[in-house]
Fold this sequence. Notes:
Largest sheet: 8 strands, mixed
Radius of gyration: 23 Å
Distance between the termini: 63 Å
Strand order of the largest sheet: 3-2-1-4-5-6-7-8
Oligomer: single chain
Number of strands: 8
Amino acid sequence: MQLGFVGLGRMGLNMVTRLARAGHTVVAYDRSPEAVARAGAAGAEGAASLEALVSMLAAPRAIWLMVPAGDATESTVNALASLLSGGDIVIDGGNSNFHDDVRRAQSLATQGIRYVDAGTSGGVWGLEEGYCLMVGGDVDVCRHLEPIFLTLAPKDGYLRVGDHGAGHFVKMIHNGIEYGLMQAYAEGFELMHASPYTLDLGAIASLWTHGSVVRSWLLDLTARALAEDHDLSTLKGYVDDSGEGRWTIQEAIERAVPLPVITAAVFTRFRSREDNPFAERLLAALRNQFGGHAVKKA
């Protein structure tokens, strides 16, 4: 199947490579000429611009976007809308907010352009392991694109989960759960690190991947990270977030669904970015005010 592909970052290039290896014809574009060259080396046809990419595809076209959520995706969709024709398909495989998917699908439909949102999980391991795909859109459009989805996904790793926005909604919840799982592992291993015993945390993580009820792919990665750096001394405890955790909490508030674990995990990431935070300074000041407890000066 022929597919246009926009965005050749860490995941995008691997996805293009996986598709090309399976015999699909991929026309790839990125703002970086070096990234386009790498896609060419992986078996894709390189395009120098969005206009060139569209002209190199046979109608009806299908174009997969793998660019950062927000302004980058919005501007790319708008640019493509002025270039595409009725019957063409835009697939957003990034981490867009599902509300944006619904709006985009409605807007593009006025021009006869079809829209699909594909929540994509797999990270840098997806090239060999495959990508779990959570897809939202019209049934007929998703069925037409199944050769692409089935190539990118491992066995049983693709599902159309609902209408426009459903794919990214499910991926949003997936990432919210991921926040909670990662936080639980982090806290448990921190307690073991502080224990009175001399524990090999990497060996314990590896042990738990064999038959334990807490085994998971994230635990596999924990074991790998601890084997490479047993006390993680080369890292700083700064943890970023890409938005899906926040959106998950916002949706929970709108629907009055309690998410204490995911909420705590997101807030812990916020705290990880602060150096000598104001809240802790205020706590120290209050203890000094009411009890005369000692404080440390900056």
